[in-house]
# Entry
Amino acid sequence: MDLLGAWRAFVNVSEHGSFTEGAAATRVPQSVASRRIAALEKHLGERLLDRSSRHVTLTRFGRDMLPSAKRLVRLAEAMEDEAERARLSPLRLAVPDVCSVRDLALLAAEARRKGVYLDFHPAPPGERAELVRSREVRAALTAMPPDDGTWTVRLGLAGVSAPAVRTVYLETLRAGRAGLESGRRRIWIQPEDDVPHIRDRVFRVRDAVGLQPAQVAVASTLVAATAEVVASEDLLLCSPHQAEELGLRWRPIGEVRVSRGFDVAAAIGDDAERLRTRLRAQIARCLGADEPEPEEGPAP
# Structure
């Protein structure tokens, strides 16, 4: 039996003195309101309403129960209001600086359709996990090695002009390989990729192929890195999605495969799971993540 629904019907019928009007106030048919109250009376073992006269009146037991019933209904309504406010309360999410305004807007719109209201807080990788720990945000898309993450974003090199090759080898940037100007070209690592599993791997290749230390540098901001690339023959370490947004030509790196990895960290576990399950594809698009490989079908 729906006890709350029965008490709500009892309160409304009592206040209106009519099953018809009380049922309308409860937003149920009259027959439903009547059955609910009858079931409640059977459950309690006493009659609540006197139906013998033209107008519905309270029995002595009904008069004694009415104040408590009103308190119960008011409390239930207050809880429903609190639940609605909690459902609509924005989930503050720390996101990488590399996410574009358009992609974040599309993510927020899709999240809203699925009952999740997002409030974005862009931050560099080193700060996002700390923001969760300090409870300044409820969740964060944190950087991690790609093998450990939920989303993977492959990286390569992008420049203003289209390279003549399908793959860029760092050794071709070494001084003396293709002229003096080629030797001065630099690779810019943006702040999002200033993490050990990306930066250190690129540095090791730099050293192995004999590039000058200054030829692979970490930029202070993505804007600064992009400005250097646009104004010269320098290259930006980035994803294909980012390169397209910036109007650059992207190619993979020949000597090493580097990727961003992302997962969700949250102060409350179910926030992380909601984001992973309800918005997995939309977050992937926002990050520029690789499409998942299709599952192999059964062997013929």
Q: What stands out?
A: Confidence is low (pLDDT under 50) at residues 178-183, 292-300. The two ends are 54 Å apart (CA to CA). The chain has three domains: 3-86, 91-149+260-287, 156-257.
